[in-house]
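Researcher: Let's do a round of design. I'm pasting the structure tokens now; please hold your answer until I've finished.
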């Protein structure tokens, strides 16, 4: 049996990009490419993990579209449906293992994200018994949602909570509040989130949920208890192969796998 948490109480897992594969980045890339707009590091930073109204308004502006934000949202979901026709959505590898491990470690586990609850019920319904009430919290209107989840939906201190997310903007808020964080940046070939997380100083960056094992969770638990979850450090690459579990050295940062090399792409004219 794994060790039970000694300090952490609540673990919050993002849905789109963590428990489910990232669909936002590739769909936004396709959307922008249709209108001849370059997908850049700055643009990705501005639109990820934002309320729909904000992201859609930015997309309309950069694409020069005379649309309302709701029209952009409608077109985004139409594009997403076309994307999912070629890329059927399934739960991320390691989801069942991580949820079971968190249960055995005594964590209260919930899922959150900007998607509607339907996605949670459809794709994660079979794991519903491994989540605490309310199971899923929609954060579109309360982005990023850390304060609301920790202090309103629940009643914990920030140092008792761990968030697992794929977006650096979320990590920045977690750092500001000194909340434990594990980054699972998207493997999208044109994405920049791994690079952004390194710049922010995320201590623990993994390729897949399979990399979040008992040893890593125990390390984060110790850091949360010591108040060092965001201690300054220089990220060190580990010699693990992509997607494999590997040893960490001491209590240093965890960066598993090299991940994709981010680059700017210009759509064909």
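Researcher: That's everything. Go ahead.
Model: Designed sequence:
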């Amino acid at each position: 049996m794994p060790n039970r948490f000694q300090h952490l109480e609540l673990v919050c897992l993002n849905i789109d990009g963590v428990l489910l594969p990232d669909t936002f980045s590739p769909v936004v890339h396709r959307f922008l490419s249709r209108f001849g707009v370059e997908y850049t590091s700055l643009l990705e930073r501005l639109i990820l993990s934002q309320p729909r109204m904000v992201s859609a308004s930015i997309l309309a502006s950069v694409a020069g579209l005379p649309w309302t934000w709701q029209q952009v949202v409608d077109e985004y979901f139409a594009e997403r449906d076309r994307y999912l026709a070629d890329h059927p959505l399934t739960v991320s590898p390691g989801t069942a293992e991580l949820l079971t491990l968190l249960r055995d470690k005594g964590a209260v586990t919930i899922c959150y994200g900007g998607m509607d609850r339907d996605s949670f019920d459809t794709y994660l319904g079979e794991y519903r018994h491994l989540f605490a009430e309310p199971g899923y919290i929609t954060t579109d209107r309360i982005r990023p949602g850390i304060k609301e989840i920790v202090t309103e939906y629940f009643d914990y201190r920030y140092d008792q909570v761990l968030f697992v997310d794929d977006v650096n903007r979320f990590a920045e808020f977690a750092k500001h509040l000194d909340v434990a964080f594990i980054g699972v940046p998207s493997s999208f070939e044109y994405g920049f989130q791994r690079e952004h997380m390194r710049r922010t100083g995320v201590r623990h960056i993994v390729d897949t949920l399979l990399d979040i094992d008992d040893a890593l969770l125990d390390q984060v638990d110790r850091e949360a208890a010591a108040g060092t979850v965001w201690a300054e450090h220089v990220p060190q690459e580990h010699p693990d192969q992509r997607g494999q579990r590997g040893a960490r050295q001491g209590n240093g940062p965890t960066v598993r796998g090299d991940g994709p090399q981010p680059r700017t792409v210009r759509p064909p004219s």
